[in-house]
Design brief:
This protein is an alpha+beta fold and 246 residues long. 48% of the residues lie in helices and 13% in strands. The protein has helices spanning 3-18, 20-24, 32-38, 48-56, 83-89, 151-163, 179-190, 193-207, 213-245; strands at 79-80, 104-105, 108-115, 120-124, 135-138, 144-148, 167-169, 175-177. The strands form 2 sheets. Strands 1, 2, 3, 4, 5 and 6 form a 6-stranded antiparallel sheet that branches. Helix 6 packs antiparallel against helix 7 (179-190) and helix 7 (179-190) crosses helix 9 (213-245). The protein is globular, with a radius of gyration of 18 Å.
Length: 246
């Protein structure tokens, strides 16, 4: 069993034990052939982690209440997209006429696997690196930033967070996050984001035209990554300082 599937099973088992109503809203997974048939028109390949995820669950239709959605994203409460919805949204990421409207990762396509009606967590298509694909955050303004080093580190972060009560459900089934605990776990598994960010910036600047929208977007994405890491480190340092004064 891979670390990704093991983490998904840990999440489901924890929900079944602690919040069975939330566990019930996890849909059954798809077979490999079902996944392939739903994305057969995509002009690019997707990483193995993508297939593992959708064999665990087929996702939830947009607008369907799912009280476990906040587990996957601490701020936007993103649900796992159905492949039907992801395929519907994906064309909005591509705009050959207006460069500032297109969304990609060093020229590679981004496919939205988690999302709301305005924000998404995407996996990178045609990813041929030896390392797993990073998970990229895309806002409704078409801004992008690294969110997790990989889908596996994302789900390991989630699994450990719920097990140490960095996440709790209240009686109304909304999600409450202990930001400081979460920061410690997030940095434990995703500290390599800075290295990813530097590499992406270098590659994007190589393919971007001087003084172009592409160059500006590359620099903005790098600043977003640095800002996100600094925010998590600040939460952790505040926790450390508090313990030191107690």
């Amino acid at each position: 069993m891979s670390l990704l599937t093991d983490s998904l099973n840990q999440i489901q088992t924890w929900l079944e034990t602690n919040y069975p109503l939330a566990a019930e809203s996890i849909t059954p997974g798809l077979t490999l052939s079902e996944i392939e048939s739903k994305i057969e028109t995509l002009p690019f390949s997707l990483p193995n982690e993508f297939y593992e995820l959708y064999q665990w669950s087929r996702g939830n239709s947009f607008g369907t209440p799912t009280i476990y959605t906040g587990i996957f994203d601490t701020f936007d409460g993103m649900a796992l997209n159905t492949l039907e919805y992801a395929m519907e949204v994906f064309p909005d990421f591509v705009d050959e006429e207006f460069e500032e409207c297109a969304v990609d990762y060093i020229g590679k396509p981004l496919f939205p696997i988690f999302g709301t009606d305005a924000t998404y967590l995407c996996i990178v298509g045609d990813w041929e690196e030896k390392t797993p694909s990073p998970i990229v955050y895309v806002s409704d303004l078409r801004e992008t930033s690294h969110k997790f080093v990989s889908l596996t580190t994302m789900l390991k972060t989630v699994a450990e967070s719920i097990q140490v009560n960095a996440l709790n459900f209240n009686t109304k089934t909304y999600n409450n996050w202990d930001e400081k605990k979460y920061a410690e776990i997030y940095l434990k598994y995703n500290s390599n984001i800075l290295k990813l960010s530097v590499n992406r910036l270098k590659q994007q600047l190589l393919i971007a035209q001087p003084d172009s929208i592409g160059e500006e977007l590359a620099e903005n994405s790098f600043r977003e990554d640095i800002g996100h890491l600094e925010m998590e480190k600040t939460k952790l340092s505040q926790q450390t300082a508090r313990f030191g004064n107690s």
